[in-house]
Every structure is written in C-alpha cells, then in structure tokens.
Write a structure and sequence with these properties.
The protein is of the alpha+beta class. It is built from two helices and 15 strands. It has helices at residues 2-45, 117-121, and strands at residues 54-65, 68-82, 85-95, 105-108, 111-115, 124-135, 139-140, 147-159, 166-175, 180-190, 196-208, 211-220, 231-233, 236-237, 248-258. It has an eight-stranded antiparallel β-barrel.
C-alpha cells in the first residue's frame, strides 16, 4: 500500500497542475474576451472626430495690421495618421486695407505718368500654408459623449507665390502739328518681396459628432506690403509710406468636417 501511495502521488500532483493551468488559460481567455469587448465599445463611443483620419476645413479671418483691417478666406486639408498629430496644407485668398499709398503721379522727362487706380486701391494675394497639426486630448462637454472640447496648434509656413506686384502707369501728351494725343504706358515693378513667412495658429475647438467649430488667432511675420514696398519705374525708385510691422495677427473662425 505504501508503494501504491508513493507511486500515484506524483500523478495526482501532475493532474492538479494540468487543471490549474487549464483554469489559468480559461481565465486569461475570459479576460482577453472582456478586454476586446471593452475596446470595441470604446471604439463605438469614439465614432466622432477622434476616429477620423482626414479633415476638410473652411476658415475666415479678420486681419489686424495697424489701423487697416483686412480679411482672409481659406480652405485646407489635414491628414492625421494618429489621433493627436497630423499634417495640413491649405490655400487662401487674402485682402488687406491700404495704408500708405505709392505715388499716384510720376514726372519723368516732363511726362506726367498717372497710376491705374484699380492697381493702387487693391491689395490682395494668394497664400499657401503647410504645417504640422498638434491636438490635445479632449474633454466631454455635457452628457453627450460626442460633444467634446480640445485645443489645437499648427506651427508652420505661409508661402506667397506673387511676392512682387506691378502697377500700371500711363502718360498722355499732345505731339506734332496738328496736335495729336499720344499715350505712353509703363509698369512699375517691385523687387525683394517677401515670399515666405512663419506662422503659429493656436485655437480652441468644439466638436459635435464629426463636425468641429474652431476659434483662434494666427500670428506670423508676414509683411503684406512687402509686395509693393520697393517699386521702381523706369529705373527710379518710387516713394511710399507703407507701415512696417514685425508681427501680424488674425482672429479666425473655422468649420471642419472630418472623414
């Protein structure tokens, strides 16, 4: 009997070990199943902007530059490989108020050249933007899970392809016998216009389902008058009184649809 008890005791411990392992594996599988269920439910709850990888944004801003306001209208696209980091590119139409005119009349060799008022009165251009986009984790607003508040910042570049403007001047005089009106037309051309600038664009954003409303301010070192600050006509530099500012600021509102 002692031999039998001694012989079967290891087998009993072995069977107990197998049962313990089976129980642990079963517990692990149950925990894994539960975790998978929780993650799946979390994904369902995040069926809002957080689960989207693409965003299309329309924005409008009011430019504050000295005492002359302007505006910008733009459209941008952003791709988010992960929830909090993305890359964005955009195009915009920018228009500024005129502060400090270029000479409207030029006297060259007793010919009075008069500028085209349409060229002097308008100050608009296209701008392109390229920037990484950084988002903070969001917090829920109210009881709905898909209404959330978060912050965003996009430090990057502003590019202006039309950095140097041209202004048309025309002169009329009477020549010959009998007198005949003769018109001469020329263009004043700018040089050394600013074609690139840095920008920082922080904003506060409220998301509702797949849509986002943003409010923020864009700071940059863009000089909007650099495109006509160094105009010259027939080899003569034209005087102007455009202001110099090292920093521009724009208050903007954006509407975003996420995909």
């Amino acid at each position: 009997m002692r031999e039998n008890s001694f012989t079967f005791a290891p087998q009993t411990r072995f069977n107990t070990t197998i049962k313990d392992m089976n129980m642990k594996i079963s517990h692990f599988l149950l925990l894994a199943l539960a975790a998978t269920s929780i993650i799946a439910r979390a994904d369902d709850r995040q069926d809002d902007y957080r689960s989207s990888h693409q965003a299309l944004t329309f924005g409008a801003s009011l430019n504050a530059y000295g005492s002359d306001p302007g505006y910008t209208l733009g459209l941008s696209y952003a791709y988010y490989p992960i929830q909090f980091v993305g890359i964005s590119a955009g195009i915009g139409f920018q228009s500024w108020g005129i502060s400090g005119n270029t000479s409207s009349e030029i006297n060259i060799d007793n010919d009075i050249y008069v500028a085209d008022n349409d060229d002097l009165d308008k100050k608009s251009t296209l701008i392109f933007t390229l920037a990484p986009t950084l988002r903070t984790p969001s917090v829920r607003v109210g009881r709905r899970e898909d209404v959330r508040l978060f912050m965003e910042c996009a430090p990057g570049l502003m590019l202006t392809p039309f950095a140097n403007e041209r202004i048309t001047y025309a002169s009329q005089r009477v020549e010959g016998q009998p007198g005949k009106w003769v018109q001469r037309i020329g263009q004043a051309k700018n040089s050394n216009g600013q074609w690139a600038a840095w920008m920082v664009r922080p904003s506060v954003n409220l998301s509702v389902d797949k849509g986002i409303i943003g409010l923020g301010c864009r700071f940059s070192n863009l000089d909007p008058y650099s495109s006509r600050r160094h105009l010259s006509f027939k080899g003569r530099k034209l005087p102007n009184s455009y202001p110099h500012h090292k920093l521009t600021a724009e208050i903007f509102l954006t509407l975003t649809a996420t995909i």
